[in-house]
Write a structure and sequence with these properties.
Blueprint (H helix, E strand, L loop, with lengths): L8 H19 L5 H27 L3 H14 L5 H12 L3 H13 L5 H13 L3 H14 L4 H13 L3 H11 L7 H14 L2 H14 L4 H13 L3 H14 L5 H12 L4 H30 L1
């Protein structure tokens, strides 16, 4: 009885012949399309899972861990804009605007463009106080996608900051028909009304903004200022105290609280004046320290 022997000499010769027939393809670095497609699917799935982990870290407030993960993913992923887009957002949320701008610049130079990218560029320009550049980015974002309330908010803020109050108000109102629940648009309109001296209107608009989002310290602050102008000191104190609690880095609420308490003959005026000075001193120290680091680095 003759048994088949695995890997017999004939089978080995056939295998060698097959290898020889594709040797030239191997030498040309030929990839099997099916194998390559399967590899791409695996890599895409791994990238998607990594992006979800990074987003979960951001939502948990672990921005530095998210940034580390996204940097690793971005280093090996060039076909998709998502890793660097998420990286730009994470950097911006941690206050690293230069790093966020670099991530956006990489996307631009590699042919990726999106309205949301332009919106973030506008936000970075606002943070840098480059108001005309913020206007340019916001207008470009609106060209890429319309309507886009986020772009309108950047445009309104930039126009407000350069003193074009009427134009800023028009832009903020333009955002409202798109999104009536836009607390930021109402907050912007409240700022415009306060600056224009329309104090009753400023109070109404600030309250509408706070009804939708109570966590707006600048709006509490502006509400307090408008109430002071209307002589409603008790309500003003409550609004200014809310602003001071939510944004302990702001000296303005304490300065105005000191004035209101002083006018009422309250001993609390001295405490708020002291707190305001301490905040200014800390801010000055940080600025000097940052300047020293920069000078040492150069």
């Amino acid at each position: 009885m003759v048994c088949d022997v695995p890997n017999s000499s004939s089978e080995i010769l056939n295998s060698l012949d097959e290898l020889a027939s594709v040797q030239h393809l191997i030498e040309l670095c030929y990839d099997d399309p099916q194998a390559a497609a399967a590899q791409q699917r695996r890599e895409a799935q791994e990238s998607e899972e990594a992006l979800k982990r990074a987003q979960a870290l951001i939502e948990a407030g672990k921005h530095l861990d998210a940034i580390d993960l996204l940097n690793q993913l971005a280093a090996r992923t060039h076909a998709s804009p998502q890793p660097r887009w998420q990286l730009a957002r994470a950097y911006f949320q941690t206050g690293e605007v230069d790093a966020a701008a670099s991530a956006l610049e990489w996307l631009q130079w590699h042919g990726f463009e999106h309205a949301e990218f332009a919106v973030l560029r506008g936000m970075i320009a606002l943070r840098r106080r480059e108001f005309q550049e913020a206007i340019d980015h916001a207008e470009y974002a609106s060209c890429l996608r319309h309507p886009l309330p986020a772009a309108e908010l950047i445009l309104g803020e930039a126009l407000f900051r350069i003193g074009k109050l009427e134009a800023a108000g028009a832009v903020y109102r333009r955002a409202l028909p798109v999104d009536e629940q836009n607390a930021a648009a109402f907050a912007g309109l409240a700022a415009v009304s306060l600056r224009s001296g329309a104090f009753e209107e400023a109070v109404d608009l600030a309250l509408r903004a706070l009804e939708q989002n109570i966590q707006l310290p600048a709006t509490h602050y502006r509400l307090g200022l408008a109430l002071i102008h209307l002589g409603r000191q008790g309500e003003a104190i409550a609004a200014l105290e809310a602003a001071a609690r939510m944004a302990p880095q702001l000296a303005g609420p304490h300065r105005w609280l000191a004035r209101v308490h002083e006018a009422a003959g309250s001993a609390s005026a001295a405490e708020h004046r002291k707190l305001g000075r301490q905040i200014v001193a800390r801010r000055r120290s940080r600025r000097l320290a940052a300047g020293g680091v920069t000078a040492a680095g150069t």
